């Protein structure tokens, strides 16, 4: 029996042998090239993604991280000065708009009041001018008014 062949159970039916077209020589390791230490260049040890130190050629390592400049840690104002200007401009602009609107409203109200008051005085002046003088003087003197009353009565009998 072949020592590399799998053992077959006596009650298991055997399958026909499959054809393997790939030769096993393709999977054989190639002869290793000899690497000399002098031709390799300097090697540095860097941490990998898991924290282990691995060797890497020095010319492939990333450049060192630049040291950041020290930060200014003085406390900042509660509101930015530019933001304070914007807030002041907004409040001032709103107050200006409200004042202008109120002033225009007052001018319009005054014009309307003057117009209605003037119309009332003009109407009173016209009524006083058109009123008869007898009504003003109590009926004693003034123009004479003749009133004629004529009654014409006719009887018709339709019968």
Taking all Cα atoms into account, the compactness measure Rg is 60 Å
Total of helices:
3
Distance between the termini: 160 Å
**Average predicted confidence as pLDDT:** 78
Largest sheet: 2 strands, antiparallel
Strand ordering within the main sheet: 1-2
Which of globular, elongated, flat, extended, rod-shaped describes the shape? elongated
Description:
- The model has no long low-confidence stretch (mean pLDDT 78).
- This protein is 37% helix and 6% strand.
- The chain has a domain at 81-133.
- With 159 residues, it is mainly α.
- The protein has helices spanning 37-40, 81-130, 133-137; strands at 43-47, 53-57.
- It contains 3 helices and 2 strands, in the order αββαα.
- A hairpin with a 5-residue loop joins strand 1 (43-47) and strand 2.
- The protein is elongated and about 155 Å long.
- Keywords: Membrane, Transmembrane, Transmembrane helix.
- The chain crosses the membrane at residues 86-104, 110-129.
Can you lay out the helices and strands and say which pair or pack?
Elements: H1 37-40, E1 43-47, E2 53-57, H2 81-130, H3 133-137
Antiparallel strand pairs: 1-2
Provide a compact summary of the structure.
With 159 residues, this protein is mainly α. Helix content is 37%, strand content 6%.
């Amino acid at each position: 029996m072949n020592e590399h062949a799998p053992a077959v159970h006596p009650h298991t039916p055997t399958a026909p042998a499959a054809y393997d077209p790939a030769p096993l020589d393709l999977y054989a390791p190639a002869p290793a090239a000899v690497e000399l230490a002098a031709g390799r260049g300097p090697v540095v040890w860097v941490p990998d993604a898991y924290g282990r130190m691995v060797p890497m050629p020095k010319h492939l390592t990333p450049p060192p991280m630049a040291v950041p400049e020290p930060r200014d840690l003085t406390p900042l104002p509660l509101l930015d000065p530019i933001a304070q200007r914007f807030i002041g401009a907004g409040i001032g602009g709103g107050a200006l708009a409200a004042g202008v609107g109120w002033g225009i409203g007052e001018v319009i109200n005054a014009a309307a009041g003057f117009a209605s008051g003037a119309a009332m005085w003009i109407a009173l002046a016209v009524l006083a001018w058109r009123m008869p003088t007898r009504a003003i003087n109590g009926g004693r003197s003034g123009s004479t008014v003749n009133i004629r009353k004529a009654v014409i009565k006719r009887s018709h009998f339709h019968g």
